[in-house]
Each structure stands twice: as C-alpha cells, then as structure tokens.
Amino acid sequence: MSKKETTITVKPLTLNTATITICGDGDLVLNKMNDVSTRQLVDQRKNKSKTVEEVNEWEQIITAMHWKDGTPRNYSREGLEEALTENAPCITSFGLKKSFEQAVVRCGIDKYSTKFAMSVNVVAPGGLVPIRFVEHHIDEKLMSPKRGAPVLVRLNRFSGWSADITVQYVEGGEYSLEQIVQIIGLAGFGGGIGSGRTSGYGRYHVEGVRA
C-alpha cells in the first residue's frame, strides 16, 4: 500500500523593521558581574585554593559593562576614558525585550507575553545596543550579599543618555508598530532598563520612530 503524500506550502513571514529612539528621563546604571568576581567564583567552583590577588579597581569598573567593540583591556582611568570616547557602553537586546514583555502583562495589555515574544524581536549586533550619553559617573556603594559582610561595589552611572533600538515585527501580526511603540513607552515609564530600576534609575521615553 503506497503512502499518501501531502504537500505543505510554507509561506515566508513578512517582517517589518523600525528604529525607535529612546531618551533617558533619569540616569542609567549599567552593572553586570565583573571579570574579577567571575574569576573568584570559577576558582571556588573548581575548589582552587585561595590566592592573594591584588584587585584592580579599574578592571572591576570597566568589565562591569557590556561594550560595543569588545571589552577594553587597558585597566586604568585613562583606559576607561578612552573606551568611553572610542567604544560604547551597551544595553543588552535580551534585557530590553524582557522589559517590553513585562510591560505587556503588567499594564494589562495581554494576560501573557507569549504573543508579543513570538511576533516582535529586538535586533542588535552581538545582542548589544550602544548608548549615547553626556556624563559618566562612578558611584561607590556598600551592598550586602546573602552571605558574608557587606562589600564595596562601583557602579557606572550615565546622565543624558539615549539609544536607538531596532525592532523587527511580523506584518499583520498580533502587534502593530503603533502598539509596539506604546508598549516600549510604557516599559520606559514604569520599569526602565539597567540596574537600580527599583530605585528609579533607567526610566526613559520614546523620542522618535523611523520605519
């Protein structure tokens, strides 16, 4: 008995692209686990004996951010200043999209963020969205880990910041460009991006749209 063949026609998705400019309504704090802390954790996992490492504070500061053209290796004040001029600190496209998905649910646009997640993407080389800024500050704060004594951390804070976000969305999909822009605006107003959002950092508004 011969098998019946079924032909399925796969229609290509029609995708539209838009660039959305966001501008900060307050300062932005960028802070990820720096390379010094990463090495210490890896050594603990491998049960390596503790070695006395002279911590370079500039390595901590510089590697606590994502960089557009790769992490600078000149761990000094001069190296940081050069990187801020010739390179660019970045927000992750993953973090941006997650914040948009949260806004969909928290603002009552949809009960779940699944439809948005499946029909809208934030597109960026290497998953990194560079920021522009007017001023850079280094804040020193004592933070209390879950275990152990408080530790001194240095946070990178930016004033007068902005960024261009490129989004791709399905034409005729669940969300129109107008709705996507509205969601991004809501995410910026109520949630923000970066570290310290619960303290009000990273808030922004939509400044322009190019489709």
Please indicate the count of domains: 1
Beta-strand percentage range: 25-35%
Tell the overall outline: globular
Could you report the average pLDDT, rounded to the nearest whole number? 91
The main pleated sheet reads as: 7 strands, antiparallel
Structural class based on helices, strands and sheet pairing: alpha+beta
Radius of gyration using CA atoms only = 21 Å
The total count of strands amounts to 10
SSE ordering: EEHHEHEHHEEEEEHE
| Helical content (DSSP H or I, runs of 4+) | 25-40%
Count of helical stretches: 6
**Gap between N and C termini:** 55 Å
Describe the structure.
The protein is α+β, with helices and mostly antiparallel strands. The chain has one domain. Helix content is 29%, strand content 29%. The chain has 6 helices and 10 strands, in the order ββααβαβααβββββαβ. The strands form 2 sheets. Strands 1, 3, 4, 5, 6, 9 and 10 form a 7-stranded antiparallel β-sheet that branches. A 3-stranded antiparallel β-sheet has the order 2-8-7. A hairpin with a 7-residue loop joins β7 (135-143) and β8. α4 (93-106) crosses α6 (177-190). The longest helix is centred in the middle third of the chain and has 14 residues, at 93-106. The protein is globular.
